Amino acid sequence: MRFVFYLLVMIAVALCVGFGLSYYALTDGRLFGVAQVGPWAAWPDVGSNAPNPYTRGHLARTAAFELGQSEGLQFTATSDSDGQPLSRDCAYRILGKTPLATFWTLAAQDEAGVNIAAPDVAPAMRSSDIARADDGSIIINVGTRLLPLNWLELAGEGPFKLVLTLYDTAAFSGFSSDASMPSIIRGDCA
Q1: Does the pLDDT of residue 161 top 90, yes or no?
Q2: Which of 47, 107, 168, 179 could cysteine-pair with 102, CB 3.0–4.6 Å?
Q3: How far apart are CA 109 and CA 136, in angstroms?
Q4: Is the CATH number of domain 36-52+67-189 3.40.50.10090?
Q5: DSSP-assigned beta bridge partners for residue 183
Q6: Average pLDDT over residues 92-105
Q7: b vs e for 56-88, b when ≥16 Cβ sit within 10 Å of the residue's Cβ?
Q8: What is the pLDDT of residues 119-132, one digit of tens each?
Q9: Domain positions in the chain
Q10: Dist CA 33 CA 22 (whole Å)
Q11: Which among 30, 27, 184 is positioned nearest to 108, based on CA atoms?
Q12: What is residue 22's predicted lDDT score, i.e. its pLDDT?
């Protein structure tokens, strides 16, 4: 009887650990297939001819239509540069340079992937429509309250994520010398 009990406990532990690690690999993926640059994370094998098994699982789980590897790369941030989760109660400033790309967009989405830009404004910031600093770096303010300079106005409450999509980029290809990503600085909170 004791043997059967230990056997059942071992099977339960093995199933929990196996399914738990699989879930972690497909949702977070930092240890398996995700490239992390500061608060930004990307799945670089998305769109390749032969993605790794973790990227295949991620694609099957999200069921999203992704860009091909030669078309672009999508970075997502769910926390600021200090590791605090992004919240619509706070204002944020995105500072720095983006990797070399022909064009990029920055959008804010809720946890379900729905765009949360305020009504009657552009749903995303585009690289062609922003004012840059003298050195070419970007300064974008993100929040629900009016902010100066480039402003991505959000609506609603709760957590959100920022999605930076680089089109026609050489990031992670070995040809890019600029692997920097902009930082996300938390401002005032309500």
Answers
A1: yes
A2: 168
A3: 26
A4: no
A5: 95
A6: 89
A7: ebbbeeeeeebbebeebbbbbbebbbeeeebeb
A8: 888 899 998 888 88
A9: 36-52+67-189
A10: 12
A11: 184
A12: 75
